What we know:
Helix content is 64%, strand content 9%. It is of the alpha+beta class and 291 residues long.
Amino acid sequence: MITFEELKDDYVMYGFPEQTVMECGSNQHNFRSNNYVMDDLVFVVLDLINLLDVFGEKDRVAIYIRSDLCLVVDIRDQNGNIRRQFQAVVERYEKSGRGMRCTVPEKFLYHFLDHLMLDDRKFLENMEFQMSDLETRMMEERVNPSFINEILSIKKELMYIWNYYEQLIDVGEVLRDNENDMFPVENVRRFAIFTQRATRISENVKYLKEYTVQLQETHDAMLDYNLNSIMKLFTVITTIFLPLTLIVGWYGMNFTNMPELTWRYGYAGVIVFSVVVVGICVIAFKKYKLL
């Protein structure tokens, strides 16, 4: 493993094309990078993310691999995570006191790439539980403005993660295809296994993205349900007061020959009649489960 500064000083000694060094230093914001397959060299660039801080600055690593060399270039490593991953794989093959070393570059590269996805399934599982909990809260609390913000935040995060794994799949496919026949056939299968694992995780992320769409639809359905409930209540209230409005209109005309105008109990009678009408309406609405 070397730093980017060391690569710029020594790439001629290694026999690496200058174009690959320029690719390492490119300041692009997307995950898809150019991967080069030459007669005796495979070159890939990876932008790595921290799943606990998806939108933080990405780490960047380049890998040069030949039949006798696997060179990892630490281009940008914010917290030393790339070097720790590299050292963890080295310790698999170099055991204290036994001198055991990995002499197959593609085997080492497979384990290094696989190590990058070591705890990713656990993270995605926890995210699924978080989304399930959000769905439960949506059903219990009905409407909360913060729900849609949470859903959109998770959706954006998953889109970013999905692009990250698509990048890993691209790299795995380049190595698996072995266009320059640099790797022995029996070792190429390792990259096929890595590609399959990255694909499965990518499919899991894709499923979670679809889950966020379902959550958003559920949220919209809950808003519609609450709006309908409010409109239903207003409709019931309006319907109850409609006969009372009719009564008010009737007795507000003050015709001379209206007997209730001179009846001693006319005022109280209209009140009782109005209460009876309201009671009948309420009973009818409850019977038909409109209240």
